[in-house]
Structure formats: structure tokens, C-alpha cells
Amino acid sequence: MKHILILGAGTAGTLMANKLRKKVSRREWDITIVDENREHYYQPGFLFIPFGIYKKEDVIKSKSKFIPGGVETIFSRVEKILPKENRVILEDNRELKYDFLIIATGTRIAPEETPGLLGELWFKDIFDFYTIEGAVALAERIKAFDGGKIIVNITELPFKCPVAPLEFIFLADSYFKKRGIRDSVELTLVTPLPGAFTKPIATKMLSGLMEKKGIKIVPDFNIAEVDNEGKRIIDYEGKSVEFDLLVTIPTNKGADMIERSGMGDDLNFVPTDKHTLQAIGYDNIFVLGDAANLPTSKAGSVAHFAGDILEANLLSAIKGEPMTAKFDGHANCYIVTSDKKGTLIDFNYDTEPLPGRYPYIIGPFGLLKDTRLNYYGKLFFKWMYWNLLLRGHDLPVTSHMSMCCKKRPQ
Amino acid sequence: MAQKNYAGHTIDVNDEGYFTDSTQWNREVAAAVAKDEGIELTDKHLAILEFLRSRHSSGDALSIRSINKSGIVDVKEFYALFPGAPLKKATKIAGIPKPSSCI
């Protein structure tokens, strides 16, 4: 019997377990998946919790429900990978051997990296919304908020779901309008980027929306520390911005286990071949999802598209054939722009988000257009996530980015 | 492709002024690029440039954070030496590509 071992039962690991179990022979290959938590969170839903649109119970299901029969699940912390020996050591010193390893251990927020962030204001006036705890605690604080300065601060790149800070601030704008106190709330995005987003065409569209909604932006701000007493964040050049409520997107790091295994970069992301998805230096280790250091977004859509490529390449490798599938960095993100509308971006390593339609020439979704249908696309996606994506079914979209319905503006 | 003249050397650059061939770099050229950026190079600057070049040539990704591993300066001093956008400026002066910030 040969072994495929998957570390991490989040979006990437779970969809891979489902895909592979359908494709590899049960007589020759066993598949094992390891995760330390029993709950699967629908992370795109975290965004809606602070505004009372979703509750905690709307985004949690049991991980086991999504692991197919014929895959062994082990709930344990991973101590480390011994990549040269094809072995993984679990917390209780148990040892798992593998022929192929898939690392899908994702990314976590690391607020401890910024001095003062975990100070006395943490979860009083400073919150994240990338954890269920943060999102739920922030909902209470926002309900009680009756005016003042709210800043959304991106600590550093890369971070998961790069459009989420913008969506958060757009939803905050809608939320306070609805409460009738928008005039007494100052909303500011404080970012290390030179603008609202990295790529020029999307930045233009998104900054236009921000301006229209009266949302301020402080660009080129690299946070060095939080002054809890003075309620302000200070950057490396001494610039500071005051807040009454700080919503932080802390430094993102890969799993600590990657560091213990000596396999990570400065932020514990695994150096990965951007086309084959193999861990650099190890032919029988693949990396899927946020754990990889790929130069594309850290997002569920990337794990999904890359999953098709990984499946093809792993099946080739199993047969001893050359790997021919190449990942193009395809990412696709809905961006909520209010509590009624949304926009959509679709891009890859080489092509920035362009206006157009998705996934077909007739749409129904508009790329870089602000429409009601896009908002409902985002809400409907939750159903697709639980019922199709995690279970490894094909979605009605291509894994490589298509230029079919895009147009570069003059 | 554009070319620029620095300290009597012809350098191939891209449209943002970054070297397209890092082997065309030397310390004199670096001093001239730095001058354009409003920076007078010191030994400390040069040590950082060499650190960035060696990290680049070994294929490691460059980030502001990685400066902490240089053993030369910490992030705060890095900002003081290359004010404004330290990594963008330093990589330009070091003759290596601008680090891509992907999102």
C-alpha cells in the first residue's frame, strides 16, 4: 500500500482529499488527512459577522462531514515534517510515512508581530475579523459604536483575501448609514500600498468608489507599533493615525510547523514552484492554498483553481509520467461594495483584473462593475462552497483564467 | 528597452528605472543611482545593497521584514537610510528587480 498524506483539512486540503479519493485506486493508495481542529469555518462569511448579517452558527460545520469515505482523518497537531525522510511526526510522536505529501496548512494572523497590537486595547478597541473570535467580538463593539474614528489597517503583504479590508470598510459605510449615524463616523483605510489595491485598473475603480462613499485612505503606511495609551498607530517613519476603533489585518504567517520543519521563508510560507505546485527541492511534496508562497492572492478561489492543476500533476507523478499541467495563478474574488451591491475581479500571474463579464460573454456577473447581481453572487457562493467546491466537484468555470469576456480599457 | 548612463556606464533599465541585468551593477554605478534618488551612499547603505543582492541571487524573496535578518540594520534604521519607500529604493540602487507585491 502506498500513502498520500494531506496536512490541513481547510478549503485546500478538503477539496484535494475529495478529488483524489475519486481518482486514485483504493487498492493501491490510502489517503490520510491531518488537522488539529474539528470545525470547518466558511471564512468568506467572517466579513459579514461584525455587521450582524451572519451569525457564528452560519459559518461553522463539522470538518468530518466533508471528508469522503476511504480517507482516514486524524485530528492532531503536526510536530514537523521530515521532508528528506518522507515522514511526518505528530504531536504525540506518532509517525506517518508518505509517498506523496500535500501541504495545505494555510496561513494564520500573527498580531504578536506588531508591538502593542496585543496590548490592553486588544478586543476592547482593537479587533481582527480573520478569526471567528475576532469577528464575533467586533460585532458587539460595532453595535455599541456611536461615532468616532474607525481605521482599517493592513499591516503588511501578503495577507489572506486581499479585498476583504475594502469590503469591510464598504460594509461599515452601509451599516452606519442604515443606523443614521454615518456623518459622525470617520472611516479610513490605512495601508502599506500606494493606493486602494495593487493593480492599476482595479485600483482606479475601487478608489473611485471609496471617494464617492466618503472613505479616506492613508497610503504608504507601514505600521511599526500601536500606542495603546494615545490610541494611535505609528509607522516606521514616525507618521501616526488616531483611532477610536482599530480593525487590524495583522501580519499573516504560514503554520509554525513549517518553521519547525525548516521548510518556510521569512513568513513560514513554503517556497513553491508556481506552475507545478511542487515544494521547491522536493519532487514528492506539493503545496496547495495559502501555505504556498505563490505570487498570487491568498484566497479560496486560488486553492480551488490550483487544485485542478495539482490533481492532474499528482496523477501524472503517480504514473511516473511527466507533469504537464501548469498553474497560471488564477484568482477570482467577489468584492462586496455595500449591503446591496458588489463587484468581481478575475486575474492571474500575468493579467491584472480587467473590466468585462464573467464567466461567459453574457455574464451574469460584471467584472469591475458595481452591480446587485454580483452581491447575490457572493451570497450564493456560500452554497456552492459547502456543496460543490469542498466536495471536489467541478464548478461551471475554467481553472485557467480566460480572456474570453475581458477588455483592457483604452 | 531603455538605457541609462550612470557614472560612465551604460545600463539597461526597464520603464521604472530598474536594472534588467544585475551584472551591470558596481559600487560606482550604485552611487550614481543613489544620487538620483537623493541618497548619499555610506558603508552601511552599501552593506545593505550587498545583502539584498546576495539574497536576490540565491533566489530568496525580498521583503522589508527580511532586513531584520541582515544583521546590519533593523527595519526602523532601514527606513531612515532609504526614506519613503525603502525596499523599492534600495532594490533600484542595488541593481536588482523591484520586489513584486502580489495581492
Characteristics of this structure?
heterodimer, A: 410 residues, alpha/beta, FAD/NAD(P)-binding domain, 3 domains, five-stranded parallel sheet, 7 helices, B: 103 residues, alpha+beta, two-stranded antiparallel ribbon, 10% strand
Please provide a brief summary of the model.
Chain A has 410 residues and is α/β, with parallel strands linked by helices. Chain A has helices at 11-23, 132-144, 164-178, 200-212, 256-260, 300-319, 372-389, and strands at residues 2-7, 29-35, 39-41, 60-62, 71-75, 78-82, 87-90, 95-97, 100-103, 107-109, 126-127, 148-154, 185-190, 216-218, 223-227, 232-235, 240-242, 245-249, 252-254, 285-287, 331-336, 342-347, 356-360, 363-367.
Describe the overall structure:
- The complex is a heterodimer of chains A (410) and B (103).
- Chain A has three domains: 175 residues, FAD/NAD(P)-binding domain (3-Layer(bba) Sandwich); 141 residues, FAD/NAD(P)-binding domain (3-Layer(bba) Sandwich); 59 residues, no CATH class.
- In chain A, the strands form eight sheets. A five-stranded parallel beta sheet of chain A has the order 5-2-1-9-20, covered by helices on one side.
- The mean pLDDT of chain A is 96.
- In chain A, 24% of the residues lie in helices and 26% in strands.
- By secondary structure, chain B is an alpha+beta fold.
- Helix content of chain B is 39%, strand content 10%.
- Chain B has a two-stranded antiparallel sheet with strand order 1-2.
- Chains A and B meet through loops of A and helix 3 of B.
